[in-house]
Structures are given as C-alpha cells and as structure tokens.
Amino acid sequence: MKQVLDILQDSTIVSKSGKDERSRFWGVYKRVAEEHDSEFLERYTTDMDIVLIFSGLFSAVSTSFIVAMESNLSPDPSDTTNALLKQLVQIGLGNLAEAGSKPADPASTWFLTAPTLWIQMIAYASLSMSLLAAFGAVLGKQWLGYYKSNRYGRGSQEQQGKRRQEKFNGLVTWYFDAVVQSFPVLLQISLLLFGIALGAKLWYEQASIAWVIIGTTVFGFLFYSLTVMACLISTACPFQTPTSTILYVLRIDRFLHLAFKRVSCYFQWLMMSLHAVLERLSSIVRLGWTLSSEVFRGPVPPFSYSSTRL
Length: 310
What we know:
Blueprint: H1 2-10, H2 21-69, H3 77-92, H4 96-101, H5 114-150, H6 157-173, H7 176-205, H8 207-233, H9 242-249, H10 252-295
Keywords: Membrane, Transmembrane, Transmembrane helix
Transmembrane segments: 50-69, 117-139, 172-197, 209-233
InterPro entries: DUF6535
C-alpha cells in the first residue's frame, strides 16, 4: 500500500476537476492498479502456458521411454514359448536327456535386477513430476482467472479499490509468487531425473554412449546451479529463475551471502599467508646469494698451521 501511495503522490495524471481528493485518489489508484495487474497477469499467464506446453511434450517423451523399459519389469512370454519349442525339437531329435535338463518355463528363473528397479523408479518419478507441474499450471491459470474477474467486485470506486488491495495483499501474504514459480521448478527437476534415468540405462547397455548423456546432464546441472547462485549473490544478476525466487522467499540468500563472505575472507587470508611465505622464501634466497657472493668474492687465504698453535 505504501508503494501505491508513493506512486500516486508522484503521479501527474490526476485530473484537476471539481472532484474531492478521495475520489481523485481512488481514480488514480485504479489506473495504477490496472497497469500493474495487466503486467502481472500477462507474465504469469505466459509462464503457465509454457509449463503446460513443455510438460505435455516432455510427458510424451518420458512415457515412451518408460514403455520401452516396461518389458524389463516382468518376464517375456515369448521366452517361455521359445523354450517349449526348443524342448519339442530336442524330443523330436531323440535328445530326451538334454530336453529334460532345461526348465520349460524361463519365468521360474527370472528375477528383477536392482539397477533396472532403480532406473524405473527414477523414470516414473520424472513422469509424475511433469504431470504434477501440468496440474499446477492448470490450477495457476484458474487462480489468475479468479483474481482477474473478482479483484474489484461491485460497489463504489472506493469499495472496489479496497477490495482489490485486499486481494493483492492476499497474494503477498500467501506467497502466490513462490507457489506459482514452483511449477516450473517441478518441470526442471523432472527433466533432471529423466536425464539421470536415461544415462543409467545406457550405462548398463553401452557405457560409451552413456558418457554423452551423463556429460550433458552434469553440464546442464552445473550451469543451472551457477546461475541460481549468481542470482542469490547479486540482485542485479539478469539470470533470474523460479528457483532463485523460491530461495529468496526461504531466505536462503542470507545464508549464501554469509557463506560467500566467509569463503572470501578465508581466501584472502590464504592469499596473504601464501604471499608472506613467498616473501620469506625470497628473503632467504637473497640472503643466501649475498653470503655466497661475500665468501667467494676473492681468493681464499692460505691456511697457516703455526698460527693455530697455542
């Protein structure tokens, strides 16, 4: 409310009519609120549309990956058919002993490996988060629509302004910005989990190909982490992301500032200590060269045995 009052005091669009000050105040308030709400609604509506489109495309890719690995969760029925056909061929050839030595049902000897189980769990978690992000985006569009249609209500201009300010204060009190920004974060986590699952699957099948996926995933994660840390360290950083917004709300930036300050102080102390050690070594080397030049400046005098007698 204080920011709105400051804007209204500096505003030059107030009409010089015969209206009282109260009416002019709420008239200017509505103009300023309309400008703010238009930008606010457009920004978040665009973000929710992006989340919906990307989550739909990504869910299709993730689902195809899960379907391709579905056969690893249960024994293949064709293996049983092939085993029975092999036994019939062996019986037809008269190899009864060899036919009876192999199980007719390979499913009895099949078991689910731990890597396959973990890869499937990560893949399903990735798909679940992408669907949850899409669900959150749908809710976000509904919330924005409700705010747009009900922020003024009915009544006089003053009543509409007060109702709109109450709605806007509710957005701040209930951390609407952080909640809506969490939906793109879910989508980013889903993308990271998908990269981990894909890299792990290829690692057990073809390690040389898996290194490409692992390297790309690690590079993307490090790059994203550095941009988030840069945003927390400096508010002027242009690489603002939904993750940095949520961390601002959680006050993580204060902890990061303190940690960065301590690391900076420790680094300065380390550099000063290293500089002092280098200076000491340099002085020792210079002293050694000075002594060497003094000792070997002239010829060595002959040693007299008589002069050393008592």
